[in-house]
Amino acid sequence: MGVKCRENLGGKIIYRCDTCDTYLTHRGSLVSTRFTSGHGPAWLFFEVVNIYYGNAVYRNLVTGRHIVRYIYCKGCSTKLGWFYEMAFVNGQEYKEGCKILEVALIREETDDMPETPFGRHILTSV
Ligand SMILES: [Zn+2]
């Protein structure tokens, strides 16, 4: 997309792209952890930055028909998840405008728990 500067929403507990370390979002933006993608657990966030969007496509999900766009990391172009553009089922509208990130592709980081000599802090559960 040609935008070089990276946005940062702040936050005490933040999530970065596991591949290239780009800041993506923070815990305050987390809506739900009860999602799954084709590759495993996925989390729903209200606000995610430093991503770009693919074309809008119809997807028939467990929860009904949706218009979604795949989202990609601006830093490394990894497909991180998808964006809910529109839901056609009553009760699913809360997801509109929210983004799914695959847990396996993001890394949690906190202010008081930096990376240690023993390795990265990999997400398990909330
Ligand atoms: Zn990345």
UniProtKB/TrEMBL annotation:
InterPro entries per the UniProt record, alphabetical: Yippee, Yippee/Mis18/Cereblon, Yippee_fam
GO molecular function, one term: metal ion binding
Annotated Yippee domain residues: 13-110
Signal peptide location: none
This protein's UniProt keywords: Metal-binding, Zinc
Keyword Cell membrane among UniProt keywords: no
Pfam families documented for this protein: Yippee-Mis18
UniProt KW Zinc keyword: yes
Family assignment from sequence similarity: Belongs to the yippee family.
Official protein name in the record: Protein yippee-like
Origin species: Araneus ventricosus
Gene behind this protein: YPEL5_0
